[in-house]
Design a protein that fits this description.
Helix content is about 0%, strand content about 45%. It is mainly β. A hairpin with a 5-residue loop joins strand 6 and strand 7 (about 60-75).
Length: about 190
């Protein structure tokens, strides 16, 4: 027996025959082995018919043959670009998929958000560094590849103050206010024109 694999991973063959016999494995790609339970790395994806020839040297070299098909699936490769990788808070980030040999994708943005779009756009609702991971799958085979990159969401404090007010009690511009976001400390003074 042998399990199907993704390309780049060896196939492990399980032999249930008499371990004292003589073995010849024909892996279907021109390679052979005489080990009891060999491993073999296929260089090209595809389906290979593997033949095991067992010779029992204790019984006048009686021979038996078994065959088993092994499929080596294409390995997906995950990759993406971040446009840009550092943005101000509230600015959308474009993630450009550069993966290949896949059937579907899963994005994890590092803030609990995710997507299955090919090239999604995501907006973060907090500042800091986030680890974005993309996993490319080959659904028919459970082959997958993951890549992660960092993005940084910065925050620029915003402040707005009117340059004049008229505290004369008429209900128009009687109060001056400082408004903004991201203000940690503020010293505010008002002077008359003199």
């Amino acid at each position: 027996s042998a399990d199907n694999v993704c390309s780049g991973f060896p196939v492990r063959f399980s032999n249930y025959g008499n371990p004292n016999a003589s073995f010849t494995w024909l892996f279907g790609d021109g390679e052979t082995s005489s080990l009891y339970q060999p491993m073999h790395l296929y260089t090209t994806p595809g389906t290979y018919t593997v033949t095991l020839i067992v010779t029992d040297t204790t019984t006048c070299n009686v021979t038996d043959t078994a065959t088993h098909d092994v499929t080596v699936y294409v390995q997906p490769v995950a990759n993406f670009n971040v446009m840009p990788d550092t943005v101000k808070f509230g600015t959308p980030i474009n993630f450009i998929n550069r993966s290949y040999n896949y059937t579907n994708l899963v994005w994890r943005f590092g803030d609990g958000g995710s997507s299955t779009e090919v090239s999604p756009t995501h907006t973060y609702d907090s500042i800091g560094s986030f680890r974005v991971c993309l996993t490319a799958f080959n659904l028919n085979t459970s082959c997958f590849d993951t890549i992660c990159k960092e993005v940084f969401i910065s925050y620029k404090g915003l402040i707005g103050v009117p340059n004049a007010f008229s505290p004369n009690g008429d209900g128009v511009n009687d109060v001056v206010r400082v408004e903004g976001k991201g203000i940690v400390q503020l010293e505010f003074r008002i002077f008359n024109r003199w």
